[in-house]
Amino acid sequence: MLTLANADLSVALLDPADATDQLRLGTRYCWGGYIWQVRDPAAGDLLTGPEWPLHNPSAFNGQGLPESFRHAEFGTNRPLILEDRRGFIIGIGDVALNIAGELAVSSPAVWTITRSADALEFCTAQSGNGYACQLTRRIALAGRTITSATRLTNTGTRPLPLHWFAHPFFALTDRKLTCALPATWSMADNAGYALDAQHRIAFKRQFQHRDDGHFEQLKIGAGTPLHTVVSHPRLTQLTFATDFIPDMCPVWGNSNTWSIEPYIQSELAPSATRAWALRYDFGPVA
User: Fold this and answer.
1) What is the tens place of the pLDDT at every residue in 89-110?
2) Which helix (H) or strand (E) holds 260?
3) What CATH number should be reported for the domain whose range is 2-282?
4) I need a surface site. Which of 18, 20, 73, 243 has the fewest CB within 10 A?
C-alpha cells in the first residue's frame, strides 16, 4: 500500500500496480487514489465498510473512501463507453464481459504516481471505442483534513459520459449514526431514516446484519453543495463536503457502515475538462 502520514493521521491508499492490492480492486471503484483506511494514532482505524471488520472484503463492497466512475447509467443500467461487450471504465482499465456474463478487467489502466510532501497524485490516460480521456486524482493530507481532487479531460472525438460518485464508508456507534444535512436539503418519509429537530439524519432502528439496511435518495436544495457533519464513535465529529452541487445524492447503510453518496451525471464534449473535489475533516479524538 501507499501511505500519507503526519502527526495527526495516517492514510493508507491502494497501489494500483501492486499485485496484493489488486486483489482488493475490481470493476466498481477507481484504482488510482483509492483511500483504504484512515488511522488516528490514539483512536485507531476511523473508517469501515459493508463487510467490516473483515480484513479482506470483496472488491465490490470495499471499505474506506472509494470513488467510482460508473460503467452503466444509474437507474437504467444503459452501458456507458462500453460497446459490443467491450470498452473501458474510467480509472480502472479495459474491460470485457466474461463467459459468466460479468465484467472483468482485461488490461488495467497504467498509472503515473507522483509523491510530494503532503500528497499523492495519480495520472492515467485511456482510450477505446472512439472515446479517450486523461484522469488525474490527487489525495492530499494537511493536519486532520484529507482532500480528494479529480480532474478529467475528454481527449477523444466523442462526447464522454461522466457518471461518477463518492462512496465513503463511515463508522457507526452501536449500529447507528447521525448526519447533519444542509438546511435546504431534505428527504421523504422512509423506513430507514428520519430527520430530527436539528435537521440531522437519524436511524429509525439498528440494522442487524450486512444484508439488513436501507437505501434512500435525498432531496438536494437548489444551489447548495453537500456539507455534512457525521457522528463518529471515537471522534467528536467528522465533516464531509463537496465543492459542487450533486446531481443526486443517495444514502445507504447496514449494520457495519453508512454512506452518503454525491453523484455527478454529465457529459464532456471533446477537449472539455471538469474538475471537482471532496474534503474530509476528521475532528479531534473524543
Assistant:
1) 999 999 998 777 789 999 999 9
2) strand 258-260
3) 2.70.98.10
4) 20
